[in-house]
Structures are given as C-alpha cells and as structure tokens.
Model the fold of this input.
Amino acid sequence: MAETNVGGIDRTGRALLAVVLTVVAVATLRTGNRTTGLLAGIGALAFGFNAVTCFCGLNAALGIDTSEE
Done:
C-alpha cells in the first residue's frame, strides 16, 4: 500500500472542499465563465483525489503528515 499523509479532519475538509468546488465549477460553467469553471473543476479533482487516496504530494514535500497511525 502507498504511503498516506492525509487523514482525519484534513481528509474530511478536502472532501467537502471538492464538493464545494464542483458546485462552483458547474455554476460558473453554466453562466459562461469558462476560466473560473475550469480552475474550480481542476481544484475539485485535486482535492477529491487527495481525500480518496489519503495522499498529498505537497504534504509529502513539506513533511506534513495528518494521518492517524
């Protein structure tokens, strides 16, 4: 299994942020603001990936570990 460095409240926060950014992406794309919608969509994918895999590359680079051992 791969190394994990995201857990607990951090993981929940990332999942919630992914949901919020998904809503923002859909809403802004519907109004025609493609740049904001694209950026929000990319952010939603990134935070969703972090929450699902329990791994964050930035946390790894900075030596941060919020997972419970």
